[in-house]
Amino acid sequence: MALHKDSYVELNDGHKMPVIGFGTYAPPKFPKSLAEEGTKVAIDVGYRHIDCAFLYGNEEEVGRAIRAKIADGTVKREDVFYTGKLWSTSHTPERVRPALEKSLKDLQLDYMDLFIIHMPMEFKPGDDLFPADENGKFIYHNTDLRDTWKALEKCKDAGLVRSIGVSNFNHKQLELILNMPGLKYKPVCNQVECHVYLNQSKLLEFCKSKDIVLVGYSVLGSSRDERWIEASTPVLLEDPALTEIAKKHNRTPAQVAMRYHLQRGVVVLAKSFTPARIQQNFQVFDFQLDAEDMRSIDGLNRNMRYIDTSRWSDHPKYPYSEEY
Fold first, then answer.
1. Considering only Cβ atoms within 10 Å of each terminal Cβ, which end of the chain, N or C, has fewer?
2. Which residues are annotated as a binding site for substrate?
3. Given 1.10.10.10, 2.60.40.10, 3.90.78.10, 3.20.20.100, which CATH number is that of 8-231+265-274?
4. Which residues form a coiled coil (predicted)?
């Protein structure tokens, strides 16, 4: 597959998504300004796909960075592909458009390129992002995902967003939307955790068969945020097989991990606020993994998740009880 720095995939609605995105999430202990600086560096380096979310609490900073790079002539608005996400306290149809409008206002942008349902699990609607009762138990809610989807379709029709998709859905939840009566727009993507220890081959195959792009997050392992990550999990970029292949190509393990997913047709999100690494992570277009490399990396899969969501495993829409 010939890839160069301007490579993109065509989505099922005709829009185009750059194959590498810059992830902007950082654990709360980091200053929000890092996302602003990081996004500017990323755009300078050549990233044209910026992935953010209302939940990250930094859309103002990321929006500022995008606007600064438009103002200084580095990019035009139409060169940038911005992804935002609908948080789980706004699944009720009447909250969808206001949630999108709030993000656009924080970003100071007229439209988003992609707006996705952050996860299928819904919490009690309101301003509290993780509503819990007096015993600390999460308060769930149960809007039909199809009704949430219809509200997203209306946002697309209103011109507030170009493409709509989902995140963290299993294949049954995707099918629920694909098979809904009166479906106007198919989800263009499903953004999920995807890395060499969780290569998502079954979900990837399913998505490809439905013309849905699989977008991978945590492709380099994870930020090891204590709130979500089990400290004992292996550090992906220190994997001996990955290190070996990196040596062979005179590359970093991160570049090999990203290249592996790109060659499988996965759109990858890379996250770093270190300028040298932001640049390094983008240098994956000028080498190719051979069939033996690909097989060897396939063999690293162990269906292991870095992101621990087991606290919500009693949610009726918990996605990970299904194999894919």
1. N
2. 118
3. 3.20.20.100
4. none
